[in-house]
Write a structure and sequence with these properties.
Oligomer: single chain
Distance between the termini: 55 Å
Number of strands: 0
Largest sheet: none
Shape: globular
Helix content: over 70%
Length: 391
């Protein structure tokens, strides 16, 4: 038994067994609720999560196998060490995270930690700013689809990403995760796992596809579980004590952010500014569903759920504050616009992302990322060739 496994308390497993047994019994007596929850969870996964994340998961895993994070990290080593107390490879993780969304950042951090490219301290710091939602969800699903105001999606996205960077700076200043003493080395392009150097390109790509499908299957199961738990609490009247729809939506959002934000958007007694503020908090916090998904893909990183919750809760607080401050400027400007935001409802209905749109968006973003990495590699080769003396 390892030291990490010895830290586990049997009481936790007893509670987990009791809760699981109770949920299993409820499934026997409420089969219609189970079926409905499973259908909605699978639909959410199939039409929103799968097309948006699958290309990113495959591409990111394949690039890690090729050693591209080390190449990118060589260019960003000094600034990211100075600002966030993490290696330059976190620039690669941050770019992928902000373009793909949850739980892509946590998945890559878990893979890098499993390969021993990061220490626990570095991985925890990276989680503070590399675990983010994707722009398609905030601009399309939240802004245009739920709030029927693309400008609201812009408020949520800007506050979310700015708060992520601020969160990373704060956790670097307070020394979260331990001390940081990595030297300012500049890694060269190389395969990251010496034991897998003999694999062909096709074998690495196939392994990336299988790993991505496995991870997305786990995410699907968590979505179904938390959808069912939310429905059970709804049936039990747990949300009846909350007199307002946005209050009930906020509590639901702490469990599953998409369900909660959608209910907040339907509230009639709350202005758009406060709706954006609450949505920014929920998107940045992620909810217990995102927590479970992220913890399941962190791989070799040991971090307690409470510590991860603290990181995401602080991210949510910062995002809510920023959203409340910037919302009047962005929303007022959108209202004053006569052209693009003239028919907001029509635009929102046409912009609501479907399966094909999300797949095209994610694939296009991958092409852009690959082009950027290719340019980075060319610049790196040019600079290194100039510095090396000719034979």
């Amino acid at each position: 038994m390892t030291m990490r496994s010895s830290r586990r308390h049997p009481v936790k497993y007893i509670y987990a067994g009791i809760i699981t047994s109770a949920i299993a019994v409820s499934m026997v007596f409420l089969p219609a609720v189970v079926l409905d929850s499973a259908k909605r969870g699978i639909a959410l996964w199939a039409y929103s999560v799968l097309p948006a994340l699958l290309p990113f998961f495959i591409c990111a895993d394949f690039m890690i196998s090729l050693g591209i994070p080390a190449l990118v990290g060589g260019l960003f080593e000094r600034p990211f060490q100075k600002l966030f107390g993490v290696p330059g490879t976190s620039a690669f993780v941050f770019i992928i995270s902000i373009t793909s969304g949850y739980p892509m950042g946590a998945s890559i951090i878990g893979q890098m930690r499993d390969r021993r490219e990061l220490t626990d301290a570095e991985a925890i710091r990276m989680l503070s700013f590399c675990s983010t939602s994707g722009p398609l969800f905030m601009l399309g699903t939240v802004g245009a689809g739920m709030f029927h105001a693309p400008a609201a999606g812009a408020v949520v996205a800007l506050s979310h990403y700015a708060a992520a960077l601020l969160n990373g700076l704060v956790f670097c200043l307070i020394g979260a995760g331990g001390t940081f003493n990595r030297s300012f080395s500049k890694p060269r392009f190389r395969y990251r796992d010496p034991g897998l150097d003999d694999r062909s390109i096709l074998e690495m790509l196939t392994a990336s596809i299988l790993s991505s499908l496995k991870t997305l299957g786990v995410i699907c199961c968590y979505i179904i579980i938390f959808t069912y738990i939310t429905d059970l609490l709804e049936m039990a009247g747990m949300f009846n004590a909350l007199k307002t729809q946005h209050g009930s939506g906020f509590i639901k959002g702490l469990l599953e952010m998409t369900i909660g934000i959608n209910e907040i958007s339907l509230s009639q007694d709350l202005g758009l500014r406060l709706k954006c503020t609450m949505a920014s908090f929920l998107v940045s916090f992620g909810g217990l569903s995102i927590l479970a998904q992220s913890m399941s893909v962190l791989g070799g990183l040991w971090i307690s759920p409470l510590k991860y919750l603290k990181i995401k809760f602080f991210h949510g607080i910062l995002a809510a504050m920023l959203a409340y401050l910037i919302a009047p400027y962005i929303l007022n400007r959108a209202v004053q616009s006569v052209g693009f935001f003239g028919n907001l409802k029509t635009f929102a209905d046409s912009f609501e992302p479907g399966f094909l749109m999300q797949l095209i968006f994610s694939t296009g973003m991958i092409i852009i990322i690959l082009i950027l990495f290719l340019l980075t590699a060319i610049i790196e080769l040019i600079l290194s060739s100039r510095k090396e003396p000719s034979d």
